[in-house]
Amino acid sequence: MAPLTVAVMPIGLVFGAVAAGKGLSSLEATLMSVLVFAGGSQFVAMDIWTHPASWGALAFSALLVNIRHVLMSASIGNKMPAFSGPAKYAAMLLLADEIWAMAEVRAGQTRLTPAWYAGLAVPFYCVWVLASLAGSAAGAFLGDPKATGLDFAFPAVFTVLVMGFWKGRDTGAVLAASATAAVLAHQFLPGVWYIAAGAAAGVAATLFTSRRQEACA
Amino acid sequence: MTLDPHTFLAIVAMAAATVLTRIAGLVLIRFVTIGPQQKRALEAIPPAVLMAVIAPTALVTGPAETLATVATALAATRLPLLAAVAIGVFVVAVARALIGA
Fold first, then answer.
1. Most Cβ neighbours (<10 Å): which of A129, A172, A195, B78?
2. Given CB atoms, is B98 within the 8 Å cutoff of chain A?
3. Separation of alpha carbons A103 and A78, rounded Å
4. How close, in Å, is residue A9 to chain B by CA atoms?
5. Cβ contacts of A121 within 8 Å, gap of 6 or more
6. Are the beta carbons of B50 and A160 separated by less than 8 Å?
7. Would the CB atoms of A65 and B11 count as touching at under 8 Å?
């Protein structure tokens, strides 16, 4: 568990630093880590951040980015017989990708207990929040993120995450459809519609390829 | 230490959307079973969204960003997250300095 908590530290630092570069105060950046606690959607929010913040667009993009949590909580929820009802819901509030992955592995080996889950999730959460705060405070001193390339940190994180989703040619079709739709929408539509356009095109592509496979089979 | 009301509203809205996705799975398993087709569609959303977010930066911002995205993607096949991100940041900073983007 310790490596997981250590690994989240630099990502939290980078989040705080880039949030500072986008003009968020330390309080605002830390509050986002406290309340949202979903790195991917926080990264996306920084990418599309405007002044004043567009709450509808940000909530919609957070919903899209975190929709995978529906599957994760459905899956891990079936493996929590040792949890009381309220404990189960409380556990879900701290369901980050890494926590989920570790809990799934644990549930495969032994009985998943609330104590074990809290021992994993609570330190992870605290480190994420504190690292965001530290990064935000340090970020104000780092200067222009464009010169240091730090503004590219989030696109780079996304690129790595996208590669992690790679499962062969079908993924390629999803990514190609999403990229094409996103670039077109970005050129011709205002705001963050390009994210919804890319998501819709990617889902359409996966449904198309699965139907074609069924037709061949 | 300032808290802009628009920013606060945006953070709360993001938090609400995130809580919704985390709780929805628990509620879902009590009422419905997810079929293979729905599962495929849900699984395709995260990579599609992430790709949509990076596509404008990667493809139409400038050669420095395109180069750095390719470098990061290649590095990601061999190296852990942080190393690949560090390479991406390094490449974009050097490329901007050289090309002047």
1. A195
2. no
3. 12
4. 11
5. A91, A94, A96, A99
6. no
7. no
Is B83 in the A-facing interface, judged by CB distances under 8 Å? no
CB contact under 8 A, A32 and B16: no
pLDDT digits (tens, 9 = 90+) for A192-208: 788 889 989 998 999 99
Domain chopping of chain B, boundaries: 1-32, 35-101
Name which residue leads in pLDDT, A188 or A101: A188
**B82 to chain A: which residues are within 8 Å by CB?**
7, 10-11
Question: pLDDT tens digits, residue range B35-70?
Answer: 788 778 777 877 888 898 889 999 999 999 999 999
pLDDT of res. A62 = 92
Give DSSP secondary structure letters for A5-57. HHHHHHHHHHHHHHHHHTT--HHHHHHHHHHT--HHHHHHHHHT--SS--HHH
> Do A201 and B9 count as a contact with CB atoms less than 8 A apart?
no
What is the distance in angstroms between the CA of the first residue and the CA of the last residue of chain B?
33
